[in-house]
């Protein structure tokens, strides 16, 4: 559970349960005796990478600290149809209360982890790192970026506050790349901030301007084809970190990695994944 803020996680669990339960799980309260005790298993109905096990434990223990949980498959492990990830035993009403939140979170996280692992596997043996982006579900970013790490990819900036990223709209609103970079340098100095700077360029002309102005940490080559990207990497020649971005897919990611870039950012990790099919069934 590295990089997870305990209070943020607690707030998520409390708010998510409140959204679902409010003044009571009336179906379970009506149908299931309060004294009933039972067990349920987390059944995998898909293939991929399992994620969210630690979160599930936190949810269950929040609902009822007396739960007994046996983990059979650890977080980040490959799973296949028919696997049983864990078993939970305790009050039946409490199992039913926690069920949907556990499943919703794990299905989403496992889907993200699975796609992240596929991208990482696709560039195996090359020096490139696969990065996520800010294209996440509002208020669920910390969970989705957690799932990216479980899948073996790397988190990029967390939000607008922890890295400078000068993109096309910033440049267009500001005027030029040179002006945007120089104003950023002044802003960071005036506010005593030590943030790294990524600068997006859209073509070779913008790249030449970026190299002339300098004062940055990373150049993002946006929507370059692989041939042009290879030429751009050669022109940069190690002066700055190089990131590839823009519609890169599982089918094309290795070709982009082979151009010599250091990073490939993939928004699809958190916006175009397929949730894993999981269910919680009475044992």
From TrEMBL:
<dbReference type="GO" id="GO:0004514">
    <property type="term" value="F:nicotinate-nucleotide diphosphorylase (carboxylating) activity"/>
</dbReference>
<feature type="binding site">
    <location>
        <position position="222"/>
    </location>
    <ligand>
        <name>substrate</name>
    </ligand>
</feature>
<dbReference type="GO" id="GO:0034213">
    <property type="term" value="P:quinolinate catabolic process"/>
</dbReference>
<feature type="binding site">
    <location>
        <begin position="266"/>
        <end position="268"/>
    </location>
    <ligand>
        <name>substrate</name>
    </ligand>
</feature>
<comment type="pathway">
    <text>Cofactor biosynthesis; NAD(+) biosynthesis; nicotinate D-ribonucleotide from quinolinate: step 1/1.</text>
</comment>
<comment type="subunit">
    <text>Hexamer formed by 3 homodimers.</text>
</comment>
<dbReference type="InterPro" id="IPR027277">
    <property type="entry name" value="NadC/ModD"/>
</dbReference>
<feature type="domain" description="Quinolinate phosphoribosyl transferase N-terminal">
    <location>
        <begin position="25"/>
        <end position="110"/>
    </location>
</feature>
<feature type="binding site">
    <location>
        <position position="167"/>
    </location>
    <ligand>
        <name>substrate</name>
    </ligand>
</feature>
<dbReference type="Pfam" id="PF01729">
    <property type="entry name" value="QRPTase_C"/>
</dbReference>
<feature type="binding site">
    <location>
        <begin position="245"/>
        <end position="247"/>
    </location>
    <ligand>
        <name>substrate</name>
    </ligand>
</feature>
<protein>
    <recommendedName>
        <fullName>Probable nicotinate-nucleotide pyrophosphorylase [carboxylating]</fullName>
        <ecNumber>2.4.2.19</ecNumber>
    </recommendedName>
</protein>
<dbReference type="InterPro" id="IPR036068">
    <property type="entry name" value="Nicotinate_pribotase-like_C"/>
</dbReference>
<comment type="similarity">
    <text>Belongs to the NadC/ModD family.</text>
</comment>
<feature type="binding site">
    <location>
        <begin position="133"/>
        <end position="135"/>
    </location>
    <ligand>
        <name>substrate</name>
    </ligand>
</feature>
<dbReference type="GO" id="GO:0005737">
    <property type="term" value="C:cytoplasm"/>
</dbReference>
<dbReference type="InterPro" id="IPR037128">
    <property type="entry name" value="Quinolinate_PRibosylTase_N_sf"/>
</dbReference>
<feature type="binding site">
    <location>
        <position position="157"/>
    </location>
    <ligand>
        <name>substrate</name>
    </ligand>
</feature>
<dbReference type="GO" id="GO:0009435">
    <property type="term" value="P:NAD+ biosynthetic process"/>
</dbReference>
<comment type="function">
    <text>Involved in the catabolism of quinolinic acid (QA).</text>
</comment>
<keyword id="KW-0328">Glycosyltransferase</keyword>
<feature type="binding site">
    <location>
        <position position="200"/>
    </location>
    <ligand>
        <name>substrate</name>
    </ligand>
</feature>
<feature type="domain" description="Quinolinate phosphoribosyl transferase C-terminal">
    <location>
        <begin position="112"/>
        <end position="281"/>
    </location>
</feature>
<dbReference type="InterPro" id="IPR022412">
    <property type="entry name" value="Quinolinate_PRibosylTrfase_N"/>
</dbReference>
<feature type="binding site">
    <location>
        <position position="100"/>
    </location>
    <ligand>
        <name>substrate</name>
    </ligand>
</feature>
<dbReference type="InterPro" id="IPR004393">
    <property type="entry name" value="NadC"/>
</dbReference>
<dbReference type="Pfam" id="PF02749">
    <property type="entry name" value="QRPTase_N"/>
</dbReference>
<dbReference type="InterPro" id="IPR013785">
    <property type="entry name" value="Aldolase_TIM"/>
</dbReference>
<keyword id="KW-0662">Pyridine nucleotide biosynthesis</keyword>
<dbReference type="InterPro" id="IPR002638">
    <property type="entry name" value="Quinolinate_PRibosylTrfase_C"/>
</dbReference>
<keyword id="KW-0808">Transferase</keyword>
């Amino acid at each position: 559970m590295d990089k997870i803020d305990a209070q943020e996680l607690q707030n998520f669990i409390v708010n998510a349960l409140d959204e679902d339960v409010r003044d009571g799980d009336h179906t379970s309260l009506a149908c299931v005796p309060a004294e009933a005790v039972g067990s349920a298993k987390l059944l995998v109905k898909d293939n991929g990478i399992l994620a969210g096990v630690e979160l599930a434990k936190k949810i269950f223990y929040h609902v009822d600290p007396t739960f007994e949980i046996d983990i059979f498959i650890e977080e980040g492990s490959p799973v296949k149809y028919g696997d049983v990830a864990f078993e939970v035993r305790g009050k039946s009403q409490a199992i039913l209360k926690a069920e949907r939140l556990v499943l919703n979170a794990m299905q989403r996280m496992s889907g993200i982890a699975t796609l992240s692992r596929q991208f990482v596997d696709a560039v195996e043996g090359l020096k490139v790192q696969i990065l996520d982006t800010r294209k996440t579900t509002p208020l669920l970013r910390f969970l989705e970026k957690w799932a990216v790490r479980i899948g073996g990819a790397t988190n990029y900036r967390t939000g607008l506050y922890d890295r400078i990223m000068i993109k096309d709209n910033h440049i267009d609103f500001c005027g030029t790349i040179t002006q945007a970079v120089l104003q950023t340098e002044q802003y960071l100095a005036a506010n005593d901030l030590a943030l790294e700077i990524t600068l997006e360029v859209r073509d070779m002309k913008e790249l030449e301007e970026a190299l002339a102005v300098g004062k940055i940490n990373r150049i993002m080559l946006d929507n370059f084809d692989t041939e042009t990207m290879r030429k751009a990497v050669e022109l940069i020649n190690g002066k700055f970190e190089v990131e590839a971005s823009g519609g890169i897919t599982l089918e094309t990611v290795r070709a982009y990695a082979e151009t010599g870039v250091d990073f490939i950012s993939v928004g699809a990790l958190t916006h175009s994944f397929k949730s894993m099919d999981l269910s919680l069934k009475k044992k």
